[in-house]
Amino acid sequence: MAASIEQTAASWSKLGDNYATSIVHKSGPSLAKLIQLARPQSTDLCLDIGTGTGHTAAELAKYAHKVWGLDPSHGMRLAAEKIYADIDNLGFIDGTSEKTGFPDDCFDIVTARHTLHHHPSMPNTLAEIYRILKANGRFVLVDEITPKPELNDWYHQLEITRDPTHKRSYYLSEWQDFLKDAGFEWIVGDSKTVYHLDIEKWINRMEPSREQANTVRQLFLSASEFAKETFNIQIKDNKAISFDMPMAIILAIKPARNED
Ligand SMILES: C[S@@+](CC[C@H](N)C(=O)[O-])C[C@H]1O[C@@H](n2cnc3c(N)ncnc32)[C@H](O)[C@@H]1O
Does residue 31's CB lie within 6 angstroms of at least one atom of ligand 1? Predict the structure, then answer.
C-alpha cells in the first residue's frame, strides 16, 4: 500500500543529516539550471515546495526578496533551519504541496526540486501551485523521469524498494499533460540533465534495511541490457558501481487571465 503523507513525513524526518550533506542535493547540476529558469528578482516572493533540507530555497534566497521552504517533515525542516539559520530572507514552514496554507495569487515563483515523485496526487499538487502563483508567476520543477516506457516497471521497482515513500517518476510527456491540464503554459522543458550517481551512496542516503539494500543491488545486477545501456549502469567485479539518472527540468507559467 502507498505510504500516507504522515508516513512519508515521518520516514523523511530521520534523514535530515544525510540530505543536509548530500552533494547531489546541495549543488547537483539541476540547481543552477533551476535558478536560470526561475530568474529570481530582488522583489520576488518565492516558495520552495518539498524543500527538504532547504538547498534550493537557500539558493533562491541569494536573489529574491523572501523565500519560504515548505515541507511536511519536521526532521528535514529542523536540519534546514540548522544549516541555513543565518539567511535572513529565508523561512521554513510545515505543509504539503496539496495544502500549502498560503492565499491565492501571492507568489512570483514556486519551485519543486527532487520531490514531486513522492507526492500522492499531481493534479492536486499542480492545482494548489496554480492557485498560489500570481498571474505570469513562474513554476520551475526538477524531477527524475522514467526515460522509456519499457523500463517503467524495472525502474519503479528499484525506486520503491530503496524508498517506500516513492510514488512514481513520470515521463516527460506526462509532465506536459499534467501542466496543461492544470492550466499552465509550458515554456521550456527537457530531460537532458543527467545525474551520475554512486550506487552505494544513493542507496544509503535513504537508510534502507539490509534486505532492501541487497534487493536494490540485485536489481541493478540483473537489469536487462536495455536498462543497463539506458541508465549507463556500471558494473565491476559483479558489483553495481554507478548509474545515470535523467532529470526533467521544466519552466511553466500561470498565464494572465484575459478578462474580455
Ligand atoms: C529529496 S527531499 C527534497 C530535496 C530538496 N528539494 C532539495 O532541493 O535539496 C524530498 C522531500 O519531499 C518532501 N515531501 C514528500 N511528500 C511531500 C508532499 N506531499 N508535499 C510536500 N513535500 C513533500 C519530503 O518530506 C522530503 O523532505
Answer: no
